[in-house]
Every structure is written in C-alpha cells, then in structure tokens.
Amino acid sequence: GLCLAIGGILAGYLIPLLTVGKLSVSLYVGFFGIIVFAVAFVLFYETTPKGQESRKAARAAAKAFEEAHIKKTGEVSAEHAQGVRVTHWGLSKISFTFYGAEFSFNPIWPLLGGFVINGISALIGVGGGFLYVPFLTSVTKLPMFIVAGTSALAVLVGMIVNIFNMMVVRAVPVDFVLIFTELIGIAIGSVLGPITSKKIPEIWLKRIFIILAIYVGIGYLTKGFLGHSIFPGM
C-alpha cells in the first residue's frame, strides 16, 4: 500500500501538469473504458481453472481465510490468526505471510503501478480502485481479501493529492453539496463492505468485481466515444 501511495503521489502532481490541454476529456474517458474492459477480461481469466493454477499461494491463503471467517470450521492456528505479517523488507524484495501462505514482490512494481494508475485517475477524476484491484491480484499475486484494504489506502492517498492539486493549484470549482450527499452513501458502504467481504468466497468477490467492471467499462466507453453513456447516471 505504501509503495502504491508513493507512486500515486508523484503521478497526482505530474500527470495533470504535463497533459492538461493535450487531449479532450472525451478521449480520456473513452480510453479509460477500454482499460476497464481489459481489466475485466484479466480477472475473468483468473477465475478459470488455468488462471487459478498460477496463483497457488493466493488460493491457499484464501482457503485458510474462508475456513476461519466464512465456514468457521476447526480452530484457527496462531500463525493464521496473525493475518498479514512482514517477514522481510528490502529495496528489491518485500516478503510477508498471510494466513500461513508466504508472498513476496519487488517494490518497484507497486511504485510503477501506483504512478500509472493514479495518473490515469487524475486525468478523469476517478478513484482508481477498478485498476488497483486487478493490478494487485495479477501482478503482485496478492489474495483478494487483502487487496480491498490495500487498494483503498492507495486510493485515499492518491485522491488527497489529486483533490489538493485540483482545488488549490488549479483552482477547479467543487460542488460541496454533492460531495456531502455522496459521503452518506460512502460511509455506509465503507462499513458494510469489509463486513460483507468476510462472508463471500474469494472467487465470487472477483466475479462481482468483473460484473461491475463490465458495467463501468461500457458506461465510460460509450460516454467517451459516443458522447453519452447508455447507462443512466454516468
């Protein structure tokens, strides 16, 4: 999460500064729709038997998590109860365990991922969660159960930078009434989301995300290239 946030901070400042006025907003939106579609197909592949085979560690951790929180069968070992535990921290490799399974990744990838994803987010004013989730599951091979919280942290830091850049640096007007109205739904969803995710198997979390990604992709794609979204409210 920290590596993603650092890359996102750099992108939140540099990308709007370097690209403002270079492309129309409709092109940004249309291309974002294409990217979200690609994300949906990548996640769909990961739900297939072949895709599942390439993520053995994530599957083992997800199975242990599901047994502890969903099926609630047997006793949870001390190793499992620790959740995420960092075992090695270095410039070229970070390792940690999650419910008995060991994971490792090169921190340069989250840095680059955070930069690219938050750069795209800054261009069209979206949170970027739709891109952080597949990046974390596909590139860094993390289990879905810790991806949600990790991506949320990266989105929070990135959006704080983007909001400051838009409001203070570029003096973009903001509709505070709309913001406060949305915050009510955001607060409710933020409480119910983590609770619900513990009750749903990992593969179904991905399938739900795929459906949402297809919906968002079609909406942005048609809005960007046709001038209006085929879905209301987008």
UniProtKB/TrEMBL annotation:
Keyword Transmembrane applies: yes
Cross-referenced InterPro entries: TM_pro_TauE-like, TSUP/Inactive_protease-like
GO CC terms: plasma membrane
Keywords recorded for this protein, A-Z: Cell membrane, Membrane, Transmembrane, Transmembrane helix
A Pfam family the protein falls into: TauE
Domain of life: Bacteria
Metal-binding found in the keyword field: no
Subcellular location: Cell membrane; Membrane
Membrane disposition: Multi-pass membrane protein
Transmembrane segments: 25-45, 108-133, 145-164, 176-196, 208-231
Protein family (similarity comment): Belongs to the 4-toluene sulfonate uptake permease (TSUP) (TC 2.A.102) family.
PANTHER family: MEMBRANE TRANSPORTER PROTEIN MJ0441-RELATED, MEMBRANE TRANSPORTER PROTEIN YJNA-RELATED
Name of the protein in question: Probable membrane transporter protein
